[in-house]
Amino acid sequence: MEYFLQQLINGITLGSIYGLIAIGYTMVYGIIGMINFAHGEIFMIGSFIALTTFVALALLGITFLPVVLLIMLIVAMGFTALWGWAVERVAYRPLRGSFRLAPLITAIGMSIFLQNFVQVTQGARVKPLPPQIQGGITLMQGEFVNVQLSYVQILIVVTTVVLMAGFTLLISRTSLGRAQRACEQDAKMASLLGVNVDRTISLTFVMGAGLASVAGLMFLLYYGVIDFYIGFLAGVKAFTAAVLGGIGSLPGAMLGGLAIGLIETFWSGYFSVEYKDVAAFSILAIVLIFMPSGLLGRPEVEKV
Amino acid sequence: MSAIDPTAVEARPEGAQLKNEELRETARGEPPFAPEPILESRLQRSLREAALTAAVVAGLTLFFFAFRTDIGIGGLDLILQWPLWFVWIAIAFAARFVLSYFVYVPGRKLSDIVKRDKTATSPGAATGARWLGRAVGVVMLLIAATFPFLIETLLPSQDRYLIDLAILILTYVMLGWGLNIVVGLAGLLDLGYVAFYAVGAYSFALLATNFDLGFWVCLPMAGLFAAGWGIVLGFPVLRLRGDYLAIVTLAFGEIIRVILINWGNITGGPNGVLGIPKPTLFGLDFGRGEGSFSDFFGIPYSSIHRFIFLYYIILLLALLTNFVTLRLRKLPIGRAWEALREDEIACRALGLNTTNVKLTAFATGAMFGGFAGSFFATRQGFISPESFTFIESAIILAIVVLGGLGSQLGVVFASVVMIGGIELLRHLTILQAVFGSDFDPTQYRMLIFGLAMVGIMVWKPRGLISSRSPSAIYKEKKVIGADLVAQGEGH
What we know:
The structure holds two protein chains of two kinds. Helices cover 73% and strands 4% of the residues of chain A. By secondary structure, chain A is mainly α. Chain A has one domain: ABC transporter involved in vitamin B12 uptake, BtuC (Orthogonal Bundle), CATH 1.10.3470. In chain A, strands 1-4 form a two-stranded antiparallel sheet. A two-stranded antiparallel ribbon of chain A has the order 2-3. In chain A, strand 2 (136-140) and strand 3 (147-150) form a beta hairpin. In chain A, 52% of the residues are buried. The mean pLDDT of chain A is 87. Chain B is an all-alpha fold. Chain B has two domains: 42-103, no CATH class; 135-487, Orthogonal Bundle (ABC transporter involved in vitamin B12 uptake, BtuC). Chain B is built from 21 helices and two strands. Chain B has a two-stranded antiparallel sheet with strand order 1-2. Chain B is globular, with a radius of gyration of 29 Å. Classes of the chains: A mainly alpha, B mainly alpha. Chains A and B meet through helix 2, helix 3, helix 4, strand 1 and helix 9 of A and helix 3, strand 1, strand 2, helix 10 and helix 17 of B.
């Protein structure tokens, strides 16, 4: 029971991180119908920027943790959002209206480029960050294991919930969100009605990148180790989460993220750690084959 | 627009029409959508755009060029590299300025500059290009057929290295041609092609080490195994739409790799399989002593013989792939692949069983991947899951994309340039003098691959070197020629 609870807590934490990345996939898919394959790399860039900011702040002598975390968050979000914007501008916008595989191929190219760019400029070795937030709450004293809820986990889940709430408000209440939903339904009609479609799409990428950078920061805090390759696996798993939740649906992305996080944690907790990636990938294949519209998605109608 | 008072709408019942007329009358002097006069000169505009670009580049690269974290004593050290950062900002500024000033002239869209050559594809030009392509193909084939001897006579001191490099390039050519069937002809984006490469390599390695079978017996079996896996993996997922298919094939590629790593007692786990036998020429091996190649023909032993032999094996395998592809393209099944690539819905409407058509393309591509895999295993003598990562799939895909989807000759050029060219750059001492002694161009290979993939797709989505329109088209292209459909609208 204690073991189960502990795995549940770990799974929810991991799921929050996946969910935040998955939102970027699902929003971009909703609005322009493409898989932004480079989104995992954006997440990785976010965590690198956060790490560099941390080291720079330490050199400057700023060590008060809440301030450090806040600055890391703001800097990472800002600069990663710029990356998200640039990727869309360079690699996707010129291809609007091209044949279907074209943006997917550029997305793969972009992902390879970003991965190797970071490898070349920052080195291939893993970068450790000593744990910054230590301690936690012991929820339950078991015979063999205690159920621990660490402060990092609390921070991750709370941040995710706050961001999700803010984000849902943004989409449902503001004019930007309205424009975005309009573009999702019919970009041509939206542009006729005075919505700046290009700008809305750019902002979608910017928001997705911002959320991914928060996920990157939390990954850094939670695991304490990053390298240039983390974006690939996290990206594929977050994409699985988006598909599982129903691609195009925002609550679906969060739900899918939680589901993937829980499945992965329980799989490695009860079956085998080696095959945890296989579990995630198999779920992707199974969902796509038997349930292509996911848990909360709308079935897609193919038009000529 | 602004000339019409919004309050006029509320006044509609009492002569709103009249009021609107009046308003229109007063606004008649200036048309509402007068183009804004260009206030800034070309130089000003170029400078402004260049400054903006430089600012964006500065923001993007601040955390990657200016700062570098490295593991030092007691945690991470921060290395500051301001000069590098400033150099890149300056490069961005200069590049954008030149582009803005000389290329992007207002009123002339970029698409006009790029698409200028579109109109030149008249039937005459097409036949001319075909003849040129054929001539280049024959010349390249002659060079390829005599390559080891050319090397032996011209550069005998580096023969081993160069022939080994040629073998590597030909392996990629073969993989590229195999993947071209799937991506280029049938239009199915396969990101897990390396899985079939791995299946081929491991089938040969395991058959050879466990059952003592030779290369030539295992080669067809490896191909069949890979094709079988292609069918097994392809059958459930080929109903999916293009981009989903890509992700699922990627997932399969990773699953196979993870299984290879963890299924230790069969595959040897991360250690791989050792002691894979070398191929023989009708029972003659390439070692020393009794019954070897040199002994049988009475020539002195040289280790280069084995390299030359391997070179010809992969050349033959690659040519087989090419030949089969060229022939299949003329059969109904090949036509169906190309039709599927151009428009899947039309294919279904015309009664093609799209799942079967896709499955044949998938299995055929997988089979050649399997052949290449077993060649890889016999060449290396050792395989491990390390060789079959996603990066490998990405390299093969990049070669196909850069060469032009569906173009056979393009794949050859792309492999020679991307694999051979970058490998040769490593030995240019000039580069090391410029960039420092620890400069290694292979480090930048994937960087260039990624950039090139983006660039090619944005600039010429049907490939840099050549493009392949369907084999079966009307003599005169109608309005729905592939060039027009695929790049303009829809699918």
